[in-house]
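re: ur question from earlier - yeah i can do the single chain one, its not a big deal. heres the input i used so u can compare w yours
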Amino acid sequence: MVVDIENQTTLENAPADGLHTEDISEPTLEELERELPVVYDGQVPLGDLLSRVVQSIYAELSELAETMPNMSDSARKRTLADWVVKTKKQVVKLYAVAKWSRDADTIQKCMNITAFLMTQNQQFEDTIRALKYAKESLDSARLRNHDLLTSLDVLTTGSYLRLPTCIKKLAIPPTPLTDAEVAKTLFDMEETLRYRLRMSEAIPIEISQYHIADGRAHFTAPKLFSTSLCLRGGAKDDGWFFVHVEFLINVGGDLTGLQEFPRIPSGIIKRHITDEADARLAFYLRLPDEPPQMPEAPPRPQLPAGVVDAPLVRLYNFLQMMSLSYQLEILWYQAERMRSLGWADYLSVQMSSDRKSLKVSYWIRPPLPQLPGRPRLKLPLLGGTLTISIVENKVPSQTTPGPARTSRQRVVARLQQKSKLGDAKPSDEVEGLRFTVNWEPAKGALGILIPAEESSLPTDALQVDPDNLDFERMLRTVIQKHSKAILGSFRNQLQHGSNKVFSPPGVVSLVLEGETQALQAHLCADEVVIITIDARTGRLNLRDTGDLAAAGRGPRFAVFSDRLNENPTFLMDALFRLRISTILDLAEQKANYLGLQSYRRRNIVQEEMQKLGPEARGSLYIQLSNFPNHYLVLVVTDERFRFALITTKVLSESMYGNMVLEDIAWLDFDRIHDAALISTVDEKLKTGGNLKHKRESDDRNVGAEGRYYGFHLDTQGLRELYSYCSARVAFINVERQFKIRGIPFTHVNPTSNSPVTLELSEIQSSLARSVPALCVQSKHILSGAPAAEAAMPNIRVIPLNWWSKEKAQVVTCVKLKYVQQPMGKTASSSAVIRPSKRIIYDTTEAVVSFLSENVNTCVDEFLEEWARVSKMVVIAREVAQMSKHKKWLDVRLLSFDLQTVEFAYAQDYTVSISCQDQLSPTGGNFDLEFSRMLPQDAMETDSSLDTFNPHEDAEPFLRDILRHAHGRLAPSLHFLVTVLRDTLPIVVELEAIRRDGKQNGQNLDIFAKASGWYRLLYGDLKHALDFRLMSEQRVAILDASHSLFDVQMPGKAVTRTPAIDDLVLQPIPRMREIVTVAVQNGLASGQLAMGKVAAIDVGVITNASGVGPLTRAIHAQVLEQLNG
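and the output i got, formated as tokens:
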């Protein structure tokens, strides 16, 4: 290419490098962008996001449309408002995302460019690695140096004159020395070594005890190393060379990694030691036939004037440092292995950069998060540090250079230097090195500042022993010392703290047995908590003595331990709370053993809790099963239990059912237990039991301050307390009912003179005989009650079953004035019968016991039962006297059991009377059951016997006679029996007519209109006969269409309405003639007596004997008349 340098245009258009290139057009921006890789990492299409949000909103709206109609108005408004707020937030976020999406193209382009640059960077790195690999591969392909000597021989002579030296060495073995030559050589070398060591070599005093054998000099530094050296030759200037070394150490503790630290190095380790030892031995040695040094190589050091080379001193210094460093590395390895075996989070191991200092921090704890508003106690993040360092061993008072030596060693060293070196000085001085172990406990570790005398250990306790290198032992020694000091400080705090609970001797003690270090705190009874410090983590651990019953306390102890480790100053408070919790646990365990329902807390207003006293530290509420609103409360104070019986009331206006204490009564448990103990002793004496063991056990527990002083509450004692509270509440409830009614009462002991049987002592509480009963007067409690005169003056009220798990009961004992023995099929041959669940009758003493299942309503139940029983007693008594007083010989009492009275009122016709709800406002109710007695020789399977009593149809009207007695039961009973006897001929004849009509297919309806009024309705339902009982045992047989009270007034016409006449009974045709014929026929036949029958316009009036003939005659003629 020719360029015109003078042509400016040519110069301007010429390329800078002088090369001519074709004109290539630059690519456009769109082409460059198409070459970029497209990256969609972490991006979501805006359309998908919009679709998902809209679908979610639509789904929620659909769900609201289905669920909101069932909601209340306020709930709908609240739900809709919440949905609008939540949806608005989503829409606002979506709007922001839509705004950001405007820059999506720019962000996409940036991401593509970033990916392109990362790809280009990766290509550059791959190129660098390829070039490096090529360089390393070509080094091994380099040609060997040319053999110039062989080339010259071939050029000058035309053939080889010699073999290469390497071939000679490989093919021709050297001539071996004989044994004599070997022995002589070794002997000469030993003599030379001996001469050199005795005459000219400066030997450190620490290895001055040496021996020469096998052509070598063996040096031993106690607890450091043992090495052997040999000379390079016999000349005076020949140097030493290193042969072997053995480190005089033994690894203790865990021997898992023992193979990593051999006493005699081998392999590459020995080669490095050999190279370094030979270099130190030949530091000032002039090498023979030394080739010219390279220009950049430093000059070999030269000894100054008056200085003599001391290679053994340099070797000793080197091997001494090697031995100590080797031991330090072993300790570091052991520390790291402890970290790998579970100590990693709690142990920090740091080695200095010069590998001369090992620093280990134990009890590492992470920093606690600082919560706003809750300041935490700042504790050190470590328990302490153990530092092992290699330092120079110099005595401060020593003025001469060198290590710390004894006076004898210094004199020997001075004499050796004077005799071997004269006035010259050795080139090197002996370096005295040793281990120092320093323990520094962190100030305030676990919240305790230990005294200065407790923060140090004797020198022999902390030293590196080469014969037993065991870092774990050293660390545990330090930790045990630290733990002992901390636990001792805790003990002093508990014994001399503001709270005197743990101040008495023996309550808190420090246990040191071997490696076991623990702080024992006696909580209560046999419960002891043990406080230990974990050697690995430095955490305080709380555990109990291992009682099987305390297996469930693990989580609670874990919670206390966690809180204690967050703030160790919480120990006093933690133990105090744990003591209260353990006391409550033991009491709750005993309550559960007895099957009692207990609670730690009740929803009692805080102001009400102050009624338990300022000394209350905790409480256990034992609910009385029979009285849910009453609790036996075990109040825990600092020194002992206090017992209270409380009555609670739920505040109806409170949202959470808060309760208040209506009443609180403190219990003297010693007095209660003494009463139970005396009762038990009396029972044992009366039953002949052995009291020796009982007295011995009681004597051991009873002290000057009472048997149950403190927290020694056994199961029997808790049972007595519970029983006493149940008895007291039962009596309170009964007494309250008496007070409401204004009934005076007194306390009596019903069992004071009664003997105690073994069975009774086993089923009753030991307090049963010491708890009194209540006595009321019958004139007070039965005032206004029916048959109050049937009871004796004194009535006893005795609560029962308050000592057992069963529901509490109340028995009311009433002695009757009138003794009526039970009789009949329901009576029993036993002296005591129980006609019902709630009534027990002692026939010999005439005592009726009324049992109430509900203590709160026992008085009402007694009055109700008394009303029933007393009426039955009156009825039985009156029936028994009727045959004598009324001369009704066929009236006799058949059955009586206080609940039911059955008697025969005429012939074999019987009625059974019972009553219920006698205290109701309506006056109660009587039940009458009518039947007939079977003949004595009749079989129950005989179907021909008729036991139906026709009076059964009039039972609703007959029982009203007794129901409306209004306190005059005896006259009403007499009236009832009179009505039954007088109406018996009527019902008997009507029953016979009914049976005949049924057999003949006649449609007759017979029913009662009142207790003395019966109607016979014929099949056409328009004609009927009425049978009505009149005074003096007379019976009227009337046409039912006429009313006895419809009197025809003279001169007044009877008004009749055809529509109404069709709906009422019609007069029987020819009724007057029918009655006249029936009466005449009766008189003629003698069935009717003259003067006892009277015919009237609408019927006939007759005595009881004429009811049968007249009824049959009139009925037959009426049927004939109606059918004709």
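The CA atoms of residues 497 and 517 lie 22 Å apart. not sure if urs matches, ping me
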